[in-house]
Structure formats: structure tokens, C-alpha cells
Model the fold of this input.
Amino acid sequence: QVQLVESGGGSVQPGGSLRLSCAGSGCISSINGMGWYRQPPGKQRELVAGISSGGSRNYVDSVKGRFTISRDNAKNTMYLQMNSLKPEDTAVYYCRCAVYWGQGTQVTVSS
Done:
């Protein structure tokens, strides 16, 4: 049974940084594609950043240059480094590995 556990969410002022982590033994490795998604209040869930099994990365335009997705196969952990955060980044962030989803972690950007 694969379980993805997210951490690192919280409240931060605009311009601040957070790093989200997603731990998941049995899934997070170079074999599977994975990604980070977010769901703002009252809106649909969207892909924020993805990383393929080959290591290529893609980002939604609104976070390019500010967010970085990475993974550490030895630690079975995926990360999302978020810099220069904006109020519009406020959402519940979810990690996905193959067909598995984390429980979500809240990120709030507010002054």
C-alpha cells in the first residue's frame, strides 16, 4: 500500500518562501511520473509542477521562475520549493505519484 505524506505547508507573507515535501516509499522513484497540484478556494484542482520518469520538468506559467520541483530517490521524497510567494498561490497543495495522492497541505500567503 503506497501512502504519500505531505508536509511543509503553512502561512507566509507575500514574497516569502516555503518548501513542501512529499514522502512516499514504494512510489517516489525514477520509475514514476509525479507532480504537485493545488486547489484554491472555490476553484478546481490544477497541475502546478510535474516531473517525468526521465526527469523532465514542467510548470504552469504562473509559477515559472518561482517554483522548483525535485525528487530525492534515495529518500523516496519529492519537493516543491516555492519562492516569491503571492496571495494567489494560496491553496491546498497535493502531491501525486503515479495513481496515488497525498492528503493535501494548506499554503496561505497573506499580509
About this structure: The first strand starts at residue 5 and ends at 7. DSSP finds no helices and eleven strands in the chain. The two ends are 40 Å apart (CA to CA).
